[in-house]
Amino acid sequence: MPFSDDHPLWEVKNLRRALHAAGVALWAWSVETDAFAMDEQAFKLWGLPQKSHVTFEDLSSRIHPADRDRVRAAFTATRALVGAYEIDFRILLGQEIRWISARGLGNDEGVHRGLMSGVFLDVTGRKQAEEGHELLAGEMSHRVKNLLAIAAGLTSLTSRSATTVEEMAKELTQRLTALGRAHDLVRPLAKNQGRAALLGDLIAVLLAPYDDTGAFSGRVRVAVPRMGIGEQSATTLALAIHELATNSLKYGALSTASGMLDISGTYTDDEVCMVWTERGGPAVETKGDEGYGTKLLNRSVNGQLGGSIKTDWSDDGIIVTLTMSAERLAT
Question: Which residues have CB under 8 Å from 198's CB, separation 6+?
Fold first, then answer.
């Protein structure tokens, strides 16, 4: 049943207590003089010292410049609106951005003795959550589009290099799996600096399937600088490492039980150098024709990672030196 007119709820002190508990701030706007009057909660919300009246310009000094004209136009138009209205905008308190929602009744329903009344609510938490959801949705869309483009490119590339449907399916699955492992390693960086994976972790996880767990365990050695690489470069580098490992498994050190693989690296402010060294594999005879996997490797390092690749076909085993842009690796 509704509260009676003499219910304690309607007492001024109880109403003030309820409004304060709900975080509701009161305001009144003179449609003739443009002056604002606010309660203690509103002054606190706006970060203003308490005084008898406040002009719209006093409040405008706190409103975010991008929202200022919109808020002024919205308040002016509220008298022509029918029913309730709600205006959300940002204010600046030093370096802090706070979202405020101004609510009231339009069409002069909220006007009494020349004053239009309403409430201010702090909706910063809700707005931040909405922005977070939008960013997440945008990031998901961007990543899905990138992965679909990569998958399409890999499908086309693998179809030209494979001789049978089974071989194509196997090679494509391996390449896509390598991408998946790389994305599993990508993690958020502190202070909204993006996302990154540790270079050593990325290489170790991608090469783990090739490192025996039996008598020949430890045949793969990774000793690279402890450094983070960005999300895009992690995907590209994963493909490059996969191609090197695939070639080694077919023709190099990983094709024999006694073969050893060593990945080392150095870096400066400008570039990162990674050396892929194979030992103990079959004798290297000739370089041979460049396959599609090698073309993919060169394209990844030269184009997307802004570097170069050098191959030494020594008698002891192949040595591949990848020089990459430090700036590109960070993205």
Answer: 185, 226, 227, 228, 229
